[in-house]
Amino acid sequence: MSRQQDAATGSPRIVREIRINPIVPSESVLVATARSMRPKKEEAPAVPDLRPRVDTCPFCRGNEAMTPPPIARIPEGDDWQIRIVENLYPVLGDDHADTPHAFGLQQTIDGYGRHEVVIDNADHGVRIHEMTIGHLSVLFSTFRSRMEQLYHSDDRLKYVLVFKNFGPAAGASISHTHSQIIAMPVVPDNLQAEVRNSTAFYQAERQCIFCCLIDEAMTFEATLYDRESGEVRRMINPGQFVIERSRRFIAIKPFASRYEWEVHILPLTHQADYIDATPEDLDDLAGILKRTMTRLHAVLGGVQYNFFIHSLPHGQEYAGSSPAFHWHIEICPRTSIPSGFELGSGLFVNTICPEDAAGRLRAIILPE
Ligand SMILES: [Zn+2]
Ligand SMILES: [Zn+2]
Ligand SMILES: [Zn+2]
């Protein structure tokens, strides 16, 4: 059965192919939809903790004494809705006395940095899709201003990573909704690869690869050559990877999605640095993120996920990549546990054809 026939009947497509990630080819994905190809164990659904307040929770309002003093409260005062504190168990922290050692192949970089927790909401059990657009807009502008402050605070901080873990399968250890900000002394490898490859693409094509991907997602057109019949066909299927296009953003299902329900959100007009997002941009982002999380929640019946912001790193060596790199949010729902095949091969295995997943997410009817 060809993929075109499947598309025509609307039944799930049978695909078994390695899809090369156009931006980071080393993060390629084996899309294998046949049941027999399923090497994975499904992640057990977590029982959601929907309580509005928990007496023993350090992130609940009224329990502020259980955390280090706040770095920021929004709004100021006891009625805060968002609160930023130092992480009690930081993965990176202040300088320590010993200088980094180097012995043979054991090279290290001092684990200097900042690790902060953003308590997303005063309500303990509220989920992202249940927060108001107004609240989410304030949250995303809090991320923006904190990133800016951290970059300005110390030249040794090379990257500020904003991310969220939700649910035990995604590594969240405290059930109260929260995000994290880690300011690091190095630029993460995956981000370096994105910047390096998009810069090389820009040098060759004078275009941003992310802008090209957005255009392609909206107007997909391909020339197909059938090896057996010799027939040449054009396949035009606009929007098959698009989940939603808002005024300023687009939510897309990447062609080479590592995770079955992975969704990326990108600004429609070119913007390299998240810090350049305007308040109007962040209002619109809040809306499309809320709707995307609503869709994921509806399809999966509760979603455990990680999301993170990839933005152009600061520093001289990255300034030239501003026309080439395009900031984005990657949402990675956790529905299965990586297998030995994935760890051993470095190939992600995706058992749902991304086009079909996009179709199912798009079909969700959103509440007014
Ligand atoms: Zn709480
Ligand atoms: Zn762009
Ligand atoms: Zn990225």
The ligands bound in this entry are: zinc ion
Number of helices: 8
Cα-atom radius of gyration: 22 Å
Low-confidence stretches: 1-9
CATH class of the largest domain: Alpha Beta
Nutshell version of this structure?
The chain is of the alpha+beta class and 368 residues long. It has helices at 3-9, 133-153, 189-205, 209-218, 279-300, 316-319, 340-345, 354-362; strands spanning 16-19, 29-32, 41-42, 70-74, 82-86, 102-103, 106-107, 114-119, 159-166, 178-184, 221-225, 232-236, 242-245, 249-252, 263-267, 305-310, 328-333, 336-337, 348-350. The protein is built from eight helices and 19 strands.
Write structural notes for this entry.
Residues 1-9 have low confidence and may be disordered. This protein has helices at residues 3-9, 133-153, 189-205, 209-218, 279-300, 316-319, 340-345, 354-362, and strands spanning 16-19, 29-32, 41-42, 70-74, 82-86, 102-103, 106-107, 114-119, 159-166, 178-184, 221-225, 232-236, 242-245, 249-252, 263-267, 305-310, 328-333, 336-337, 348-350. It is built from eight helices and 19 strands. With 368 residues, the chain is of the alpha+beta class. Helix 2 (133-153) crosses helix 5 (279-300). It has two domains: 3-46 and 189-362, HIT-like (HIT family, subunit A, 2-Layer Sandwich); 64-93 and 110-184, HIT-like (HIT family, subunit A, 2-Layer Sandwich), CATH 3.30.428. Bound molecules: zinc ion (3 copies).
